[in-house]
Write a structure and sequence with these properties.
Aminopeptidase, Immunoglobulin-like, 4 domains, 5-stranded mixed beta sheet, 37 strands, 13% helix
């Protein structure tokens, strides 16, 4: 069963029957939607790692994009950034726009060592640096994928023949790199035609590049051969993906000499063509390279009420006050960090730091400064008035900014006023806090309409309660009394100031994946039947539901008159035993969320009694 952050089981082995595809198409057309989530690793450090996942309306293969593994190659990480929020009709994306965020902020290729040389069996000599920790996460993500694209900006222009110092076989720019021409994965009948795939993509890509000098070519590093001039690539992400995980992997290299917008455009074209080859059906992103601009910072002073401070304004505090930048508002959502000059490190976002002397907070988008505020000591503006902090001369100090911190199935999320939170019935939600410059937290009342926390003395305050959306809500208080949409209302002195909407859908089984001893796969839709030979072992390979991370999903298997058995992924399904009779059509597997059955599949034996 797939988990929220470890990802879903790779689906590249699934063999879909034509009948099932037709049924699934009808189901998805009835209202399925792209599912997205984000995971943050090493939060609060200089090397935060953000991973974005998009699952299409229809199942399919998974493409992984890595950008920014070397920090001075912006074409790659700015292109990957455009795919982080992609909506898909079919297939899946795992996107890591900024694998090496610290080197990006410093605009350097590497910090402690080249991150793209740490994928060997023992990493980089066993060094315990942040690059190795990031690579450990990337390895796990690669193992969940069907194809890897590692996005780079390379030197010069690749050419099979020597044409000059900037255009020759040792240059990488304008090439699609692979580690060999053909690769035979262990235990698989068909070889991976890396060279053919790369040439086909390059041919279509070149039709959209006017200047023939900028055309792409297949660049075979022959990495595993003794005579290869690129032996260092045996420690790279693409080599690991191919030789350890058995999936095709390519480096996409645009030339560093090209304008930034052209590099991003060409990366996008290459990604889209590989998606087309994998039958991943997307909406194409546009190229957005507007100059980054800071709007404001939200700063907590001494763990008290947050202060909103606009770009180029100042905040007056007292010597020794501890501040924490808790939110950065800018015209971009990703790649942002706050640096308190002379304090902390290059990324001080969410860090609690005591300020002893005047300084400045500089905000960067990747490596580019996009705004700053002054921290000044003393002065009238360091005082609090009526519970509302005053940020020096800020015209928006009384602005109605307000957001919610919420836990969904134990994972903390942030939402803005009037946002819609989409959940599956049975998900748990806890309203933790409301943050605003309107008043201190204690002055708000947060009421989840349709839920009563303190039943003995209901005051309409519902923060801090763990709410099971299948058991704890009263449908008659939902919108249209349908039990599908609820409102969370925030009041200040009995006046409504904000809302959060919670929308629920029923938990549902999409399909179950089975695998027989001869590696044949079956994908069974709800109510469908698996025709199997009970004499042969059959495994439960995956369960796909609309529940995020398959939270609290279980499988029970039994025949007539038998005690139900709990199954998990990779378990052998107990169809037979010595002298055991297998009644045709009478065995079934129920998929449950908590104790509620959300779908069932059935089994029919084609071989007579099991033995």
């Amino acid at each position: 069963m797939n988990s929220r952050y470890s990802g879903k089981t790779r689906q590249k082995y699934i063999v879909f029957s034509a009948l099932w595809l037709a049924l699934f198409a009808l189901e998805t057309a009835a209202g399925a939607s792209t599912r997205k989530n984000q995971a943050v690793y090493f939060e609060g450090t200089d090397h935060e790692l953000h991973v974005y996942r998009s699952q299409g309306k229809e199942p399919g293969k998974t493409l992984m994009l890595i950008g920014g593994i070397q920090g001075d190659e912006p074409g790659g990480f700015l292109s990957a950034d455009l795919y982080a929020d992609f909506s898909l009709l079919k297939g899946n994306l795992i996107v890591v726009p900024r694998a090496n965020f610290q080197s990006i902020v410093l605009n350097r290729r590497q910090v402690n060592g080249d991150m793209n040389r740490k994928f060997g069996k023992f990493g980089d000599g066993g060094k315990d640096d942040y690059e190795t920790k990031v690579v450990d996460i990337l390895k796990k993500l690669i193992a969940e994928s069907d194809l890897l694209l590692n996005l780079h900006d390379g030197s010069g222009f690749y050419s099979e023949k020597w044409e000059g110092t900037d255009r020759n076989p040792l240059r990488c720019g304008q090439s699609i790199i692979a580690d060999c021409e053909i690769f035979q994965p262990q235990g698989k009948p068909q070889p991976v035609q890396l060279g053919r795939m790369a040439r086909e993509v390059a041919e279509k890509l070149n039709l959209q590049i006017r200047d023939k000098k900028h055309h792409f070519h297949f660049n075979n590093h022959n990495t595993d051969k003794k005579e290869s001039p690129h032996k260092e690539q045996r420690l790279s992400a693409t080599y690991y993906a191919l030789y350890t995980c058995g999936i095709p992997a390519f480096g996409i290299e645009t030339s560093k000499t090209l304008p930034l917008e052209e590099k991003v455009r060409q990366h996008n074209l290459a990604i889209n063509l590989f998606m087309e080859k994998m039958d991943i059906r997307p909406e194409n992103p546009g190229i957005r390279l507007d100059p980054p601009e800071l709007y404001y910072l939200i700063i907590s002073v001494n763990d008290s009420l947050p202060v909103l401070v606009e770009n180029k304004q100042s905040l007056h505090i007292k010597p020794g006050d501890a501040i924490a930048v808790t939110h950065i508002a800018a015209n971009y959502e990703r790649g942002l960090c706050a640096d308190i000059l002379g304090q902390g490190t290059i990324n001080d976002t969410r860090k609690r730091i005591a300020i002893q002397q005047p300084t400045r907070i500089v905000v960067r988008k990747d490596y580019q400064p996009c705004g700053s505020i002054e921290l000044l000591l003393g002065g009238a503006d360091s005082q609090f008035s009526q519970g509302v902090p005053v940020a020096g001369n800020s015209s928006k100090a009384k602005a109605d900014y307000l957001f919610f911190t919420v836990k969904i199935n134990g994972e903390e999320r942030t939402f803005r006023n009037e946002d819609n939170v989409k959940l599956v019935k049975g998900d748990t939600i806890e309203i933790e806090e409301v943050v605003s410059n309107l008043a201190s937290s204690s002055e708000f009342t947060v009421n989840f309409k349709g839920f009563v926390g303190a039943k003995e003395s209901n005051a309409g305050e519902d923060r801090g309660y763990l709410i099971n959306t299948a058991k704890d809500l009263w449908p008659r208080y939902s919108m249209d009394k349908s039990g599908k949409k609820y409102q969370v209302v925030v009041n200040l002195h009995k006046n409504k100031v904000a809302s959060l909407w919670v929308e629920l859908e029923e938990p549902a089984l999409d399909y179950v994946v089975l695998k027989t001893e001869n590696n044949a796969m079956q994908c069974i839709a709800p109510g469908g039947t698996a025709w199997i030979d009970a004499k042969q072992p059959i495994r439960l390979m995956d369960i796909k539901t609309n529940v995020d991370g398959n939270d609290r999903i279980s499988a029970l298997f039994a025949g007539p008159g038998e005690i139900k058995q709990m199954l998990k992924k990779d378990d052998i399904i107990p169809l037979g035993g010595a002298g055991r009779h297998f009644p045709k059509g009478e065995y079934r597997m129920d998929i449950l969320r908590d104790q509620i059955t959300i779908g069932s599949v059935y089994f029919k034996n084609i071989s007579g009694d099991a033995s």
